[in-house]
């Protein structure tokens, strides 16, 4: 089971709070972005399945089922999904091996060397990552990093056509 956040898409954008925007700007390379639609969701039980059709913006050959619990839904009001509703989400990979579908404590591999969670290098940790620092600094010239990561956030979502119900 992956640790992930689900954002419900409304007319091509994601419904997120400022707090969620800040959290999403801090994502590193262990986070994977997916998008698709709600396959089914049981409101009474508080869980369901998503059908992931895109991973990192690339269309998948066949949809992948992803379990979702209501506690991971980020939206206004009552947290639930409707069948067919478009969603975008992020999920984390195993910090030990980088594989999907499990966390480090459930990893079948022996402990791997510690590495940077941003670029996966074993020569440094994320706090001293030159690649992360380089990505955050170009173009900022005194501006806060939140403004540059906000632009990336807008471009990263897979656009969905507007609802055709007139």
UniProtKB/TrEMBL annotation:
<dbReference type="InterPro" id="IPR002059">
    <property type="entry name" value="CSP_DNA-bd"/>
</dbReference>
<dbReference type="GO" id="GO:0008270">
    <property type="term" value="F:zinc ion binding"/>
</dbReference>
<keyword id="KW-0943">RNA-mediated gene silencing</keyword>
<dbReference type="GO" id="GO:0010494">
    <property type="term" value="C:cytoplasmic stress granule"/>
</dbReference>
<keyword id="KW-0862">Zinc</keyword>
<comment type="similarity">
    <text>Belongs to the lin-28 family.</text>
</comment>
<dbReference type="GO" id="GO:0031054">
    <property type="term" value="P:pre-miRNA processing"/>
</dbReference>
<dbReference type="InterPro" id="IPR011129">
    <property type="entry name" value="CSD"/>
</dbReference>
<dbReference type="InterPro" id="IPR036875">
    <property type="entry name" value="Znf_CCHC_sf"/>
</dbReference>
<feature type="domain" description="CCHC-type">
    <location>
        <begin position="93"/>
        <end position="107"/>
    </location>
</feature>
<keyword id="KW-0256">Endoplasmic reticulum</keyword>
<dbReference type="GO" id="GO:0000932">
    <property type="term" value="C:P-body"/>
</dbReference>
<keyword id="KW-0963">Cytoplasm</keyword>
<protein>
    <recommendedName>
        <fullName>Protein lin-28 homolog A</fullName>
    </recommendedName>
</protein>
<dbReference type="GO" id="GO:0003729">
    <property type="term" value="F:mRNA binding"/>
</dbReference>
<dbReference type="InterPro" id="IPR054081">
    <property type="entry name" value="Lin-28A-like_Znf-CCHC_2"/>
</dbReference>
<feature type="region of interest" description="Disordered">
    <location>
        <begin position="134"/>
        <end position="166"/>
    </location>
</feature>
<keyword id="KW-0677">Repeat</keyword>
<keyword id="KW-0479">Metal-binding</keyword>
<dbReference type="GO" id="GO:0005730">
    <property type="term" value="C:nucleolus"/>
</dbReference>
<keyword id="KW-0863">Zinc-finger</keyword>
<feature type="domain" description="CSD">
    <location>
        <begin position="33"/>
        <end position="109"/>
    </location>
</feature>
<feature type="compositionally biased region" description="Polar residues">
    <location>
        <begin position="134"/>
        <end position="149"/>
    </location>
</feature>
<keyword id="KW-0694">RNA-binding</keyword>
<dbReference type="Pfam" id="PF21890">
    <property type="entry name" value="Lin-28A-like_zf-CCHC_2"/>
</dbReference>
<dbReference type="InterPro" id="IPR012340">
    <property type="entry name" value="NA-bd_OB-fold"/>
</dbReference>
<dbReference type="Pfam" id="PF00313">
    <property type="entry name" value="CSD"/>
</dbReference>
<dbReference type="InterPro" id="IPR001878">
    <property type="entry name" value="Znf_CCHC"/>
</dbReference>
<dbReference type="InterPro" id="IPR051373">
    <property type="entry name" value="Lin-28_RNA-binding"/>
</dbReference>
<keyword id="KW-0539">Nucleus</keyword>
<dbReference type="GO" id="GO:0005791">
    <property type="term" value="C:rough endoplasmic reticulum"/>
</dbReference>
């Amino acid at each position: 089971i992956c640790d992930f956040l689900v954002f419900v898409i409304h007319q091509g954008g994601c419904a997120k709070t400022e707090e969620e925007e800040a959290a999403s700007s801090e994502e590193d390379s262990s986070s994977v972005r997916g998008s698709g639609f709600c396959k089914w969701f049981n409101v009474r039980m508080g869980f369901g399945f998503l059908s992931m059709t895109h991973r990192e913006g690339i269309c998948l050959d066949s949809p992948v089922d992803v379990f979702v619990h209501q506690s991971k839904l980020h939206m206004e009001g009552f947290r639930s999904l409707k069948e067919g509703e478009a969603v975008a989400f992020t999920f984390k990979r195993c910090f030990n091996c980088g594989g999907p579908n499990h966390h480090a404590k459930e990893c079948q591999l022996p402990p791997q060397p510690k590495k940077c969670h941003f670029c996966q290098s074993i020569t440094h940790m994320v706090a001293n990552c030159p690649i992360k620092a380089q990505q955050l600094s170009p173009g900022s010239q005194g501006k806060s990093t939140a403004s540059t990561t906000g632009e990336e956030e807008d471009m990263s979502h897979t656009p969905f056509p507007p609802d055709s119900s007139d």
